[in-house]
UniProtKB/TrEMBL annotation:
Domain Carboxymuconolactone decarboxylase-like: 16-95
Source organism phylogeny: Bacteria, Bacillati, Actinomycetota, Actinomycetes, Kitasatosporales
Pfam families from the UniProt entry: CMD
InterPro entries recorded: AhpD-like, AhpD_core, CMD-like
Source organism, top-level taxon: Bacteria
Protein name: Carboxymuconolactone decarboxylase family protein
C-alpha cells in the first residue's frame, strides 16, 4: 500500500511536523515510565487502527526489553495478569481518553482517580499529553493510509 501523502515531501507538513515531533520527544523524556508510554501508545493505536504506529511502538517496546507476552496481551489488558496496577490505570485512562465519542462524557472521575493513585501530577500531565499526542498522530496516519512494516527502531529519534 502506498501512502496518500508523503508528509516529509510537503513544505507545510514539514514545518508543522518539526514542532509536532519535538512535542513527542518532550513527552518521551517525561517522568512517565517508558514501559507505560509504549503500552499506552500501543493501546491508543490499536483502538484507532493505526498500522504505522502499531509497527513503530511494537518494535520500540520490544527493543527496549518489553516481552512478547505483554505486547500480545495489551488488547485484553483487563483479563491479563501481566500488567501492574499503575499500567492498568494508564491503559484505562488511555481507552476512555481515546473513545471520547463513545464515552458520553469523556473520562469519568473514577478512572481519573485510579490514575492519580499511581502517578504524580507531572506524570499524569505526561500521560494526558501522550494520549492526546497519540490520537493526533494516529489520525494523521490513518487519514493518509501510512503503511506499516518498514519502521526501523530509532528511525524518528
Amino acid at each position: 500500500m502506498d501512502a496518500r501523502l508523503v508528509y516529509f515531501a510537503s513544505p507545510t507538513a514539514g514545518k508543522a511536523l518539526k514542532y509536532f515531533m519535538a512535542a513527542g520527544r518532550e513527552i518521551k523524556d517525561s517522568p512517565l515510565p517508558a514501559a507505560t508510554q509504549e503500552l499506552v501508545a500501543l493501546r491508543v493505536s490499536q483502538i484507532n487502527g493505526c498500522a504505522a504506529c502499531l509497527d513503530m511502538h511494537t518494535k520500540e517496546a520490544a527493543a527496549a526489553g518489553e516481552t512478547a507476552v505483554r505486547l500480545h496481551l495489551v488488547p485484553v489488558w483487563r483479563e491479563a495478569t501481566v500488567f501492574t496496577g499503575a499500567e492498568r490505570a494508564a491503559l484505562e485512562l488511555a481507552e476512555q481518553g481515546t473513545r471520547v465519542a463513545d464515552a458520553a462524557g469523556g473520562v469519568d472521575d473514577e478512572v481519573w482517580a485510579r490514575a492519580a493513585e499511581h502517578y504524580d501530577e507531572e506524570q499524569l500531565t505526561a500521560l494526558v499529553m501522550l494520549i492526546s499526542f497519540m490520537n493526533a498522530v494516529n489520525r494523521l496516519n490513518v487519514i493518509t493510509r501510512q503503511p506499516a512494516g518498514d519502521y526501523r527502531v530509532g528511525q524518528f529519534h
